[in-house]
Amino acid sequence: MTTVSWSGEPGTSRGPGPFLSVRDLSVEFSTEDGIVHAVDNLSFDLEKGTTLGIVGESGSGKSVTNLAILGLHDPAHTKISGEIWLEDQELTSADGTTMEQLRGNRVAMIFQDPLTALSPFHTIGRQIGEVYRKHKGASKKEARDRAIEMLRRVGIPQPETRVDHYPHEFSGGMRQRAMIAMALVCDPDLLIADEPTTALDVTVQAQILDLLKELQQQFGTSIILITHDLGVVAGTADNVMVMYAGRAAERGTVREVLREPQHPYTWGLLSSMPRLNASVDVPLTPVRGTPPSLLNPPSGCPFHPRCDYTKLAGPELCFGQRPSISPETGHGDACYLTLEQKRELRTAKTEDHA
Amino acid sequence: MTSYLVRRVAGALVILMIISAITFYLFYAVPRDPARAFCGKICQPETLALIRHNLGMDEPLFVQYWHWLAGIFTGREFVQFGECPAPCLGYSFATQEPVFGAIVDRFPVTLSLTLGASVVILAFGIMTGMIAAWKVGQPLDKIASASSVVGASLQIYFVGPLLAFYLVDTLQLIPRPSYVPITENPVEWFTHLLLPWVVLSIIFTANYTRMTRSQMVEQLAEDYVRTARAKGMSSKAVFFRFAWRGAMIPIVTIFGVDLATLLGGAIITEQTFSLHGIGELAVRAVQNTDLPMLLGVTIVGAAAIVLLNILVDVLYAFIDPRVRLT
């Protein structure tokens, strides 16, 4: 497993740093109701050839972060600050043409629902081929051959006939495979998969995740895997970042975060997930309450209204001051509980669960 | 595809049968006697009876309808009046001519008017709508949206004479509207119909501007458009190759419905500019209680609308591959 350095050197010139580095990223949308603070001072890194799982509830800023990497937000209503470095290129300040050349070429994205995400009006082959033509300047014939090759690579039977079919003639799993073929057609360095398996049933889900892993091993692609399913992360990712209200609540390697979770929110996510080896009598405990409104995020720790341990950690801190993630590198979390308290609480929880 | 068309046309014929039966009943059941109108002021009962007999009006209504229907295929002869060769849609006693011939004579005028207006509507409506959607929220969008509201509120009989006064009489930019057959002189055909086209299309164009704009804005927010952008497609390609296809579907649907309204609008436009089209024929038939003519115009109008709707449905299948004509 690759180790990840979480440190950044903001403002300094960049040496051979991580492959992707997001520094102090904030994304704000202006809406009729006010300003939505969708992502708030988020920093993370991704090494080449590894997978980062980003986990969180709906509206925690997972997708927004990744759309910001691709520069897909409407500039008229969005304010983006901070830096996104892809190797030696800064993306938040890059112009439209640069981003256009980057998208689908060096950075590709897979979306959640392959039925709505594929154009219903064009054949699969054309949708895959046009990316190749745009970025590699290939001819129609070459693009078609490439599309067939890609469809074969992602395991679609009879790609020579399938290439001329429309998305509605594909099954859900096939569509997501076609979507992956489309994303990988230019051999991107970074693949962002936004809940790629949410719309699929469980067996197909496993196939798709295996496919992603296999392709990563073959081509050394870095992957950001957005999901709300910790099970998916456990099986696929190297590192995890748990997001809450547009901020990182906890991050570390998969082993660290899943074995020794530090943040009460991560505990909540884990205990709301059924386990195969647990007794059937143990009830699932969901995280109480609902995600906060990002129009008007809670003061202090954004998780405090739903947290059971504010008394223990110190209400003044939790209610008044925004915790930052610590330690700066390795397994870290944004919570005021002491390490000792966390360990005790966690032990108590595992005993409950067993 | 072929079997689809055969079934649609067969269905259309059934619909036209029903429409003709209902219209026939409605027209001939009214207590107005066209025979009496021909008989003159001093009308002998015998003469009246003879005219009624010659018109076939002394028979039960369903027999009359049967004769009318059979006449379409066999032609009919009206003693004392004249011959009506197949396809005979009836004989107009007011104008002393077969209905079908009168309609065929007038048809090119109305067809030119409607088709030309359709082109103006679609070309301008879609174009301005696209511009508005491209510049959404910017001044150009606001101007297009505002003027489309104004345009949609105008009326043919108001704009028509107004434009005719300024463009034809005062500024003398274009000739007075009339019909020059396209086979005779295409340029004059065009210039003489320009004003009627513009007037007839104003209301519709405005609607298509608004519809295209809202459809485009809606499509641009769709997932597949986001995917296209995530693939690195340029804004232009996203706009014209992806969003446009989706936006066209509802526009084609509405256009299929609007064609009927457009034919209705053609009647008013023909009246406004004294063009001798089918609309004018219909208006005059109403004034003269010329029931055979009225019936003929109604059936031809209905047939045109039914046929155009089949065309629109076929067009659907070309725009959207998910639509299968079976």
From TrEMBL, chain A:
GO terms for molecular function: ATP binding; ATP hydrolysis activity. It is found in: Cell membrane. InterPro entries: AAA+_ATPase, ABC_Ni/Peptide_Import, ABC_transporter-like_ATP-bd, ABC_transporter-like_CS, Oligopep_ABC_C, P-loop_NTPase. CDD domains: ABC_NikE_OppD_transporters. Residues 22-270 form the ABC transporter domain. It is a peripheral membrane protein. GO terms for cellular component: plasma membrane. Keywords: ATP-binding, Cell membrane, Membrane, Nucleotide-binding, Transport. It comes from the Bacteria. GO terms for biological process: peptide transport. PANTHER family: DIPEPTIDE TRANSPORT ATP-BINDING PROTEIN DPPD (PTHR43297:SF2), OLIGOPEPTIDE TRANSPORT ATP-BINDING PROTEIN APPD (PTHR43297). Belongs to the ABC transporter superfamily. This is ABC transporter ATP-binding protein. It comes from Microbispora hainanensis.
From TrEMBL, chain B:
It is found in: Cell membrane. It is a multi-pass membrane protein. Residues 107-316 form the ABC transmembrane type-1 domain. Keywords: Cell membrane, Membrane, Transmembrane, Transmembrane helix, Transport. PROSITE patterns: ABC_TM1. One of its GO terms (biological process) is transmembrane transport. InterPro entries: BPD_transp_1_N (IPR045621), MetI-like (IPR000515), MetI-like_sf (IPR035906). The chain crosses the membrane at residues 9-28, 113-134, 146-167, 187-206, 242-268, 293-319. CDD domains: TM_PBP2. Its main location: membrane. GO terms for cellular component: plasma membrane. It holds the Pfam family BPD_transp_1_N. Belongs to the binding-protein-dependent transport system permease family. PANTHER family: DIPEPTIDE TRANSPORT SYSTEM PERMEASE PROTEIN DPPB-RELATED. This is ABC transporter permease.
